[in-house]
Specification:
By secondary structure, the protein is an alpha+beta fold. It has 19 helices and 48 strands. The strands form 11 sheets. Strands 11-12-13-14-30-27-26-16-17 form a 9-stranded antiparallel β-sheet. Strands 18, 19, 20, 21, 22, 23 and 24 form a 7-stranded antiparallel β-sheet that branches. InterPro entries: FA58C, Galactose-bd-like_sf. This is Discoidin domain-containing protein.
Length: about 950
């Protein structure tokens, strides 16, 4: 941020905020990203100064509040400081910062103090920020502080190196598991990253101490360790072969779990720690260690982040409770990738996130950067990481953002039953079927808008939130199937449910009972869509639901009733915190005896009727998941009651009822919450951003910020003519089968434990793989659906003018056989080619020229290949041999070897197709575990080893077919 440009940016934004004209997110350009970070740091300084202890004369130790000094140091040494935005004069901020650095440098254990430091988890993270702040302000610090800061960097590197691959005895149970790692429920990627980052300041500022560089490289190389990938990669990083890695920190689909579930926040940890480390080397003027720019498995790990990315540049987090919308914490991985790794996709995401930072920061509590998390330590950490992101942009200009981001990020993948995520990122939406215990849902974000539907953590969505007893999944990929999509059939203890995702961004679900969707509804000026209300439109009319300000207050009125006892009985608790009430007001209830089903110590029932707005009742922690918790007040005598008022804390009931009694034993319901704001048949538009079509006689209801969808087939559309779609006829199916034809795709669900054969009547002339017979108003599709299964069929052909009684057998996307003529009609392929068909009495097979015969039976198509991320010298990406393209090929390089991961074990036959020229010597070997290879043909992994030399042919395709 230099010259007058910074002042222009700040003054313009000040004006917009002051006049209330900042109603949409500013379109921050790549050139403005660094200036935006500076402005955000300035505004955040108002919060940072709340951490200053005037008595002690320094920032607080609590939750590492003193880490604010790094943001301060950036503001003090760079840019055009604006005290009006910061809320403190520059010389005062300098005084606070220098005093704090001087104190905590001396009080660090490594410098001879006893207040903090040395402990790997988590003191060393804040040591990294602290040392960096001191280095930025080095000329202003005295000799004693210099000595202490140097002692911290050197001492930590010595201490961490002395541990070898063992645990830090100061860190309790935190462990990287040596160099073995761990990925089941709690990856050790983060822990290995902490070991590495504790060494970086010493290496950067003091050169190579005894064993420092070797330890740094060892931990860094193993962070994203996956044996099947690593053992297939002879590349060296900092002189060490990747094949020497020993850690397993990733599931074999490159997904990371932490805290028992998939958390993209931790999926990004590789680049978060890399950003912290890289900035030390860059500021110290030293070359970056190679492992920071050539990260083993880093790009396949990054691909899974892209596959969950939102329009805000922050990944969606459907299985984590308190990591969503941590904008200040999600900047640094993007900044590192866009500047140091020069990744255009990361640059796009960083610009998107930077464009929303000021609007996010202005939302109450104002100035904060990590306001949607309960962890107080995240605030100083966010400030420090935003400061590092600013420095990375100063030191390494970023690459230009990629165009068509979501088209490039598109991916459909099943991460497996253990992680419990079947995900589909399309150009129009993100969707995921989540089956991890405690997180069951069908999460969907139309247009990738992470402020539309609530999908994080335990928040339910569409599916029953019950435990899944079995799951059957299908993943469709364009290269193999002609389209991207997913289908899934889930079994619960009491029934089945189905989900499907389409390449258009549309979803289809087969619901066994009504499902719910919760909607974000906030007033956050400058954030797209968050205008303080949501508008719902359906066949029955339109309703505007305003955003709640602060805690929710419910006032329920009902016909007069005489009662002595009144109680709230829960029906649906807050998904995380259960129930908690500041006030439960009934006529003359203040100070009256109050009881509850349970309570947390210090939050007893009487707190809800004591008249003090600051005290509250809360259910016991162990009862937070209980639906029917209750709170009751005894009015002492029969009283006429016509209303109750409930003021909730964050733990507000999603649903409850009010009951009265004359004796405290027999209860009668007199009111319930929620009461529908809108009840409409067939379809519902949500704020013009998305909508639902329900193939059911039961209505869709809107209750506050919750949509309830009826059982049966429900379709979700990004933007569409919902009225017309809802008016179209629905398929007619045999018992236990549900079907949908959204966007022309045939989604089929067998919601039973028995195979089903029969006929599905379809109201269209689309032709699907399989056999169908035309009728006067559509087709009759011959159904053969295994037990508890789901699938999606693409609409390969449309027959216009075709008479009833014609049988069409679609063999694949290229070939269809007709019989039952004579007839004349027009056949149109999905790709647009139209053919006039003349059908006689004999059957006729039509083959469309130039079209792939999807689905292809090549198991290798589109699969993950190794080596990846770091390729050996002379080798090109092995993915070129399995991409289905005729103009691409894999160049092995000298004695090159590639591996393709088929995703499951098959009995296989392999075919290799080389370009013209001498075929290199080569062998094909097989493995079921990615570790040991042999000549037996049962394999998940197929390896091609070559004796390639310049002048040899290159591998055009590697095809793998299953042998039955």
């Amino acid at each position: 941020m230099g010259g007058g440009g910074a002042d222009v940016l700040i003054n313009r934004r000040q004006f917009l905020y002051a006049t209330g004209l900042l109603a949409v997110a500013p379109n921050v350009s790549l050139a403005q990203v660094r200036d935006t970070y500076y402005e955000v740091l300035l505004r955040h300084t108002r919060w940072a100064e709340t951490q200053y202890d005037t008595t002690a004369g320094r920032y607080r130790r609590t939750d590492f509040g003193f880490a604010v000094v790094l943001g301060n140091a950036v503001l003090l040494t760079r840019g055009n400081y604006d005290p009006a935005l910061a809320g403190v004069e520059k010389d005062v901020l300098r005084e606070h910062t220098l005093a704090t650095i001087k104190h905590f440098a001396a009080s660090n254990v490594l410098a001879g103090g006893n207040e903090w430091g040395k402990t790997l988890f988590w003191d060393t993270t804040f040591q990294s920020y602290f040392v960096l702040a001191a280095r930025l302000l080095w000329p202003d610090l005295d000799a004693a502080t210099h000595f202490h800061v140097e002692a911290i960097a050197r001492g930590q590197a010595d201490y961490t190196t002395s541990l070898g691959t063992g645990n830090d005895p100061r860190s309790g149970s935190w462990t990287p598991n040596g160099l073995i790692g761990g990925h089941h429920g709690d990856t050790k990627l983060e822990e290995m990253g902490v070991y590495a980052q504790s060494l970086a300041p010493g290496l950067a500022w003091h050169g190579d101490g005894p064993g420092w560089r070797e330890a740094f490289g060892r931990w860094s190389r193993n962070e994203a360790g996956l044996p099947a990938a690593d053992l297939a990669n002879p590349s060296t990083v900092d002189g060490k072969p990747i094949s020497a890695n020993t850690a397993t920190n990733l599931h074999d689909t490159f997904i990371v779990e932490n805290h028992g579930s998939f958390g993209p926040h931790y999926q990004s940890e590789l680049w978060r720690t890399s950003g912290r480390n890289a900035v030390h080397f860059l500021l110290a003027g030293r070359p970056l260690p190679e492992v920071l720019t050539r990260q083993p498995n880093g790009e396949l790990l990054w691909r899974t982040i892209l596959a969950t990315m939102s329009d805000a540049g922050e990944p969606l987090m459907p299985m984590v409770n308190d990591r969503e919308h941590l904008y200040g914490r999600d900047v640094i991985p993007l900044a590192f990738r866009s500047t140091v790794l020069r990744d255009p996709m990361a640059a796009w995401a960083e610009v998107a996130l930077a464009s929303r930072l000021l609007a996010y920061q202005a939302h109450p509590p104002v100035h904060r950067l990590a306001k949607f998390s309960g962890e107080a330590k995240y605030e100083p950490e966010a400030r420090a990481e935003l400061a590092i992101s600013y420095l990375l942009h100063e030191l390494r200009p970023p690459v230009a953002p990629a165009p068509d981001f979501f088209s490039r990020a598109a991916l459909a993948i099943d991460h497996g039953a253990e992680p419990g995520l079947l995900a589909h990122q399309s150009a129009a939406a993100w969707a995921g079927t989540v089956t991890k215990p405690g997180f069951t849902k069908f999460a969907w974000q139309p247009a990738h808008d992470d402020w539309l539907f609530k999908i994080s953590g335990a928040t339910p969505m569409l599916l029953p939130p019950s435990a899944v007893t079995s799951r059957k999944t299908v993943v469709y990929q364009r290269v193999r199937d002609g389209f991207d999509g997913t289908a899934c059939l889930l079994e619960f203890a009491d029934g089945f449910a189905g989900t499907a995702t389409l390449p258009t961004g549309t979803i289809v679900c087969a619901l066994p009972r009504p499902g719910r969707v919760d909607v974000h509804n906030l007033a956050m000026p400058g954030m797209p869509g968050l205008i303080g209300s949501r508008t719902y439109t359906g066949a029955a009319g339109r309703v505007v639901v305003k955003a709640r300000e602060g805690f929710r207050v419910d006032e329920l009125s009902f016909p007069a009733v005489s009662a002595r006892h009144v109680r709230m009985v829960g029906v649906q608790p807050h998904p995380t915190y259960g129930y908690s009430l500041f006030d439960f007001e009934v006529t003359d209830s203040r100070g009256k005896p109050t009881t509850a089903s349970s309570f947390d110590p210090g939050y007893d029932p009487a707190k809800a009727t004591d008249g003090d707005p600051a005290t509250r009742w809360a259910v016991a922690r162990s009862e937070r998941g209980r639906a029917d918790s209750w709170l009751a007040v005894d009015l002492g005598t029969a009283t006429t009651i016509t209303r109750v008022r409930l003021r909730w804390e964050t733990a507000a009931a999603g649903a409850y009822r009010i009951e009265t009694s004359t004796d405290g034993t027999a209860w009668t319901a007199v009111a319930s919450y929620p009461r529908p704001d809108l009840s409409t048949p067939g379809w519902l538009d949500v704020d013009g951003r998305a909508g639902f079509v329900a193939r059911s006689a039961a209505p869709i209801t809107v209750q506050g910020d919750t949509i309830v969808l009826p059982a049966g087939i429900v379709e979700g559309y990004v933007r569409a003519d919902l009225r017309t779609i809802a008016a179209s006829a629905a398929p007619e199916c045999p018992p236990s089968v549900l079907a949908g034809t959204a966007d022309g795709y045939l989604s089929l669900f067998n919601l039973s434990d028995a195979a089903v054969t029969g006929t599905v009547r379809l109201p269209s002339t689309w032709l699907y793989r399989g056999t169908q017979r035309t009728t006067r108003d559509g087709t009759e599709y011959a159904l053969d659906l295994p037990a508890a299964s789901a699938r999606v069929e693409a609409p390969w052909f449309t027959a216009r003018g075709i008479p009833a009684g014609i049988t069409a057998v679609v063999h694949d996307a290229r070939r269809v056989t007709f019989r039952g003529g004579p007839a004349r009609f027009t056949l149109t392929h999905r790709d647009g080619l139209t053919m006039a068909i003349v059908l006689g009495r004999a059957e006729r097979t039509v083959t469309v020229p130039g079209v792939q015969p999807f689905p292809l039976d090549d198991l290798a198509l589109g699969r993950v290949t190794f080596p990846c991320s770091v390729l050996p010298p002379g080798m090109t990406d092995p993915a070129a041999a399995v991409d289905g393209e005729q103009h691409t090929a894999w160049t092995p390089g000298r004695d090159g070897r590639m591996v393709v991961d088929l995703g499951a074990v098959y009995r296989v036959r392999v075919r290799l197709k080389w370009t013209n020229g001498p075929t290199p010597p080569h062998t094909v070997t097989y493995s079921v575990d990615g570790r040991t290879y042999g000549e037996v043909g049962n394999a998940r992994y197929v390896a091609v080893s070559t004796g390639w030399r310049p002048g040899h042919a290159v591998l055009k395709s590697l095809s793998v077919n299953e042998l039955f």
